[in-house]
Design goal:
Elements (H helix, E strand, L loop, with lengths): L2 H11 L1 E3 L4 E4 L9 H4 L1 H15 L3 E3 L4 E2 L14 H22 L13 E5 L6 H10 L7 E5 L4 H11 L6 E7 L5 H16 L8 E5 L4 H9 L3 E4 L13 H10 L3 H14 L9 H13 L6 E6 L7 H13 L16 E3 L10 H6 L4 E8 L16 H18 L4 E6 L4 H21 L8 H27 L6 H7 L6 H12 L6 E5 L6 E5 L1
This protein binds 6-O-phosphono-alpha-D-glucopyranose (G6P).
The site of 6-O-phosphono-alpha-D-glucopyranose has 14 residues, from loops.
């Protein structure tokens, strides 16, 4: 297609949400003229399912749960008054609590004010807060935010090292919907130890966001933590950023959570429309279907041309891949669905992987995110009449054209700025697109059975470790091979796991395990020190 023809196609298929200054351009996706028509009845069905979901139907059949994240920004739509009240009460509680913290009414144990925030959580209990914190941070932030989002000891040391004596002014928010996630439990214990090391009582600095009655909830109550905020079973982790999970840290940071909710709410209104061309989420879902043939055969590459949106790809990775990556469809048929998501930011990518995107395996479609506002205030000229922001636009348009010339499809989202409203709107757009796409391909977007397999396997590794430690103590100074030790604990087939566990123990001080013998796994010998 010529540039002139593309201009016509751009205008024809542009989906605009005027109140948000948002537009979605799918003109560089090569769908046929009758594609939208062909998808019509499937899309109608997806809309009907979405409508039922919003009215409170069990949209997550495996877990027998309702799916209510849209109610979080429109509490009046919740199917029962008690739910609406829970939502509005929680937003009010987030505001009131944050005000008390900012005004110093709620003080840390040994300092005048809380100035820092440490968020402990993982997956849906961290990615949304991280995206929001990074996208919207400014000099006006009321608290500096850090994260424990893994069970990596060095990662946690690094954060605690950066906080240093500021830990005395740090409020720790432990977030876990289930309240039983081990990485988060470990983060909590490591944070507690950090406070203790500075002579501080953790409970006087700790807040929980979790489901009522969960392990974390019980622990926090027993220890007398400062406060508990609810997490409901009708909100999935990866769509929880507009519950207390995302609102509390954002409000504590000093961000405009009402703006974020309003942006999401407006996007929700736009994405409830049944006319695909007026509904950017429907159009997006259709484009994913077109690109990947409804089977996810092409990867989704997210390229925001704005540093503040760097974490979009990580956020979308969970939202899209955990929702759509499913072995079975709703009838139990094996379908192995999903769409792989990755990305970084433009124009930085241009100096990294755009080479492959243009010339390498054509196994992807790109999603450009264009932000119209360059910065607060005016820009200097870097050469006659040209600013750094003009260059950013130039690189974006240039890359998009270069991809198109090689037959690589792309979608472009345009937003006016990176504000709370815009971030709320983008999140809502993708939440809806994922839900609609899941209906198009007939899968449950709201469960994650695959994640459990990895968790169970991890638990069995730790059981092996416990048995091994006991066995090594019995064997005292006698150096034994992984093969022997695996047999000793009655799990000869687990020899590789046994070796990996021993290798790890021997590599770390204080674990009491010494490695000797040769460098290869079969020559290595282990004994207690
Ligand atoms: O919030 P939590 O219950 O601690 O869960 C944290 C995360 O862990 C799980 O493994 C799920 O796959 C994610 O969807 C979830 O967001």
């Amino acid at each position: 297609m010529t540039e002139r023809e593309l201009w016509e196609r751009y205008q024809r298929y542009l989906s605009v949400v005027p109140s948000l200054g948002f537009s979605l351009d799918v003109s560089r996706m090569g769908f046929a003229a009758d594609f939208l028509e062909r998808m019509r009845s499937r899309l109608e069905e997806a809309f009907s399912q979405m409508e039922a979901l919003e009215k409170g139907a069990i949209a997550n059949p495996d877990e027998n749960r309702r799916v209510g994240h849209y109610w979080l920004r429109a509490p009046e739509l919740a199917p029962e008054p008690a739910l609406s009240k829970d939502i509005t009460d929680t937003v009010a509680a987030v505001h009131a609590f944050s005000r008390d913290v900012h005004e110093g009414k709620l003080k840390p144990q040994k300092a005048a004010r809380f100035t820092h925030l440490l968020l402990v959580g993982i997956g849906g209990s961290a990615l949304g807060p991280q995206l929001v914190a990074d996208a919207l941070t400014s000099r006006d932030d009321q608290m500096q935010v850090s994260f424990f989002d893994n069970t990596d000891p060095d990662g946690m040391d690094r954060v605690l090292g950066q906080l240093g004596s500021k830990l005395a002014e740090t409020l720790t928010v432990v977030i876990s919907k289930s309240g039983g996630t081990k990485e988060t439990r470990n983060g909590m214990l490591e944070a507690e130890r950090g406070y203790q090391a500075q002579g501080l009582d953790f409970s006087k600095h700790a807040v929980a966001v979790t489901g009522a009655g969960s392990e974390l909830d019980q622990h926090a109550r027993k220890q007398g933590w400062l406060r508990m905020f609810p997490m409901w079973d009708w909100v999935g982790g990866r769509t929880s950023v507009m519950s207390a999970v995302g609102l509390l840290p954002a409000r504590l940071q000093g961000l405009d959570i009402d703006g974020m909710l309003a942006g999401a709410r407006e996007m929700d209104v736009a994405t409830r429309q049944r006319d695909a061309l007026k509904n950017p989420a429907a159009l997006l879902a259709l484009m994913w279907f077109h690109a990947g043939d409804g089977r996810g055969v092409k990867d989704m590459v997210i390229l925001p041309y704005k540093d503040r949106l760097l974490l979009m790809s990580r956020y979308l990775q969970q939202l899209v891949m955990e929702s759509l990556g499913k072995e079975k469809d709703l009838d139990g048929k094996v379908v192995n669905q999903g769409i792989a998501v990755y990305g970084n930011k433009g124009s930085t990518d241009q100096h990294a992987y755009v080479q492959q995107l243009r010339e390498g395996v054509p196994n992807f479609f790109a999603t450009f995110i264009e932000v119209l506002k360059d910065r607060d205030g005016e820009s200097m000229e870097v050469e006659g009449g040209i600013t750094s922001g003009d260059y950013l636009l130039g690189f974006f348009l240039g890359t998009r054209r270069a991809l198109y010339e090689k037959g690589r499809e792309s979608i472009t989202l345009t937003v006016p700025d990176v504000s709370a409203r815009t971030v709320g709107a983008l999140i809502a757009l993708y939440e809806r697109a994922v839900g609609l796409y899941a209906s198009l391909v007939h899968i449950n977007a709201y469960h994650q059975p695959g994640v459990e397999a990895g968790k169970k396997a991890a638990t069995s590794v730790l059981d092996i470790q416990k048995k091994l430690t006991a066995r090594l103590k019995e064997a005292k100074a006698e150096a034994r091979s992984a093969e022997q030790l695996a047999a000793d604990i009655g799990q000869p087939d687990e020899v590789e796991t046994v070796f990996k566990v021993l290798q790890h123990l021997a590599a770390n001080p204080g674990r009491g395990v010494q490695r000797s013998g040769g460098a290869s796994p079969s020559e290595a010998r282990f004994h207690v020190k």
